[in-house]
């Protein structure tokens, strides 16, 4: 069984930056893609970014140019660097690995 542990959320002013981390433990396959999703109040969960084991990335249009996903396979960790944050980025951010989800970390961007 794989467990995902996220960290790095918090409160930041618009225009600021945060870096989220997600570390996997258990029977984790480094050959698998990992992703970050987010869910704002009263909205559906949406894909933010995804990264393959080889480092190929895809981003939601809303975060392109502002967010960067990366991974350290030696540490079983995936990161999400979030710059130029906007109020509309406020959400709970979840790490994903196949059908497994982390507990989520709250990101709140104030105006």
Structure in a nutshell:
By secondary structure, the protein is an all-beta fold. It has strands at 2-7, 10-13, 18-26, 34-39, 46-51, 57-59, 67-72, 77-82, 91-97, 100-101, 105-110.
Describe the structure in your own words.
By secondary structure, this protein is mostly beta strands. Helix content is 0%, strand content 55%. The chain has no helices and eleven strands. It has strands at 2-7, 10-13, 18-26, 34-39, 46-51, 57-59, 67-72, 77-82, 91-97, 100-101, 105-110. The strands form two sheets. Strands 2, 4, 5, 6, 9, 10 and 11 form a seven-stranded mixed beta sheet that branches. A four-stranded antiparallel beta sheet has the order 1-3-8-7, with no helix packed on it. Strand 4 (34-39) and strand 5 (46-51) form a beta hairpin. The protein is globular. The termini are far apart.
Question: SSE layout and pairings?
Answer:
Layout: E1 2-7, E2 10-13, E3 18-26, E4 34-39, E5 46-51, E6 57-59, E7 67-72, E8 77-82, E9 91-97, E10 100-101, E11 105-110
Total strand count, please? 11
- What share of the residues does DSSP label as strand, in percent? over 45%
Order of helices and strands: EEEEEEEEEEE
Radius of gyration: 13 Å
Distance, first to last CA: 40 Å
Q: What's the rounded overall pLDDT mean? A: 95
How many helices? 0
Give unreliable regions as ranges.
Answer: none
- Summing up helix and strand content along with how strands pair, one would put the structural category as mainly beta
Shape: globular
- The helicity comes to under 10%
- Biggest pleated-sheet summary: 7 strands, mixed
């Amino acid at each position: 069984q794989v467990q995902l542990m996220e960290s790095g959320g918090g409160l930041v002013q618009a225009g600021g930056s945060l870096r989220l981390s997600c570390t996997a433990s258990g029977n984790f396959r480094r050959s698998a893609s990992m992703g970050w999703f987010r869910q704002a109040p009263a909205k559906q969960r949406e894909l933010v970014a995804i990264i393959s084991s080889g480092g190929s990335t895809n981003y939601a249009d809303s975060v392109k140019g502002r967010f960067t996903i990366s991974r350290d396979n030696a540490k079983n960790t995936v990161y999400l660097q979030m710059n130029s944050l906007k109020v509309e980025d406020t959400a709970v951010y979840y790490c994903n690995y196949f059908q497994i989800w982390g507990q989520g970390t709250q990101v709140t961007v104030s105006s």
